[in-house]
Each structure stands twice: as structure tokens, then as C-alpha cells.
Design brief:
Keywords: Membrane, Transmembrane, Transmembrane helix. By secondary structure, the chain is an alpha+beta fold. The protein has helices at 54-63, 106-122; strands at 14-16, 19-21, 25-28, 31-34, 39-44, 47-51, 78-82, 85-91, 94-100. It has two helices and nine strands. A hairpin with a 2-residue loop joins strand 1 (14-16) and strand 2. It is rod-shaped, with a radius of gyration of 23 Å. The two termini are 12 Å apart.
Length: 128
């Protein structure tokens, strides 16, 4: 199936990264395709690490000589989010993936966006 030229007649109902959804089409950077029969997936590859930040170690070294309360700086914690969250759409003749940076609420946002995209796709009429 070949991409359909985008005439801009339909309003965009949902935007996910560089993917746009109208009531009948999905618009990708390389063309517009029928929305009926598209499959949406989300993959969360986020890793959360927690550790003592460098400033906590430096403050501990400086203040441990003045009082033992300097050891409390070792209780400082820092969370780091690594990886990505990807949203993919696959249909007849196309496949596209968009990646988003990790964060504490990115996975929830992606799940909500996928739910909306699946609802729009379920109500899309079949193309003749």
C-alpha cells in the first residue's frame, strides 16, 4: 500500500511525537497511511538507578573533620533515569517508531497516548 498525499482536510486528533492521527489516517514523516488495521505498541526500556551524588561525598569529606554530622551527607540520594520509552505503529505497508526520554511519568503518559490511539484506530472506517 502506498502513502496517500496529505491534503490537510481532516483535523489532527492526536499527536504522538512525529506521528499524527486523524479520524481516518495516520500521518508519518514519510507519508499518510490509512488508520484502519494499524497496531499500536509501547515498550518501556527505562532503568532507574539510585546512588549518592558526588556533592554528597565531597560534603562528607569536608565536614567529617568538623563534626560527625558530616556523615549525614551520605544519606543523600539521587535518582537517574536511563533508557527510553518507544511507541510504534504498524499497519499495511508501514512501520514507524518514536522514542521518548525516560522519566518518572513517561511510561504513564505513553500508556495513556497508546490508549487514545487505539480508541481512534478502533473507530476508523475501513478504506475502500
Amino acid at each position: 500500500m502506498y502513502p496517500v498525499p496529505h491534503g490537510g482536510a481532516e483535523p489532527v486528533l492526536l499527536q504522538i511525537g512525529d506521528m499524527s492521527l486523524t479520524s481516518t489516517h495516520v500521518i508519518l514523516p514519510y507519508g499518510q497511511f490509512p488508520l484502519h488495521g494499524a497496531t499500536w505498541t509501547v515498550q518501556d526500556s527505562t532503568q532507574v538507578t539510585e546512588g549518592i551524588p558526588a556533592v554528597g561525598i565531597v560534603l562528607t569529606i569536608i565536614f567529617v573533620w568538623f563534626c560527625l554530622l558530616g556523615l549525614l551527607f551520605l544519606l543523600m540520594k539521587e535518582r537517574r533515569y536511563l533508557g527510553f520509552v518507544s511507541i510504534s505503529v504498524t499497519g499495511p505497508g508501514f512501520h514507524h517508531t518514536a522514542q521518548f526520554p525516560p522519566g518518572p511519568q513517561t511510561a504513564a503518559w505513553a500508556a495513556n497516548a497508546i490508549g487514545q490511539a487505539r480508541a481512534i484506530t478502533a473507530s476508523a472506517p475501513p478504506m475502500a
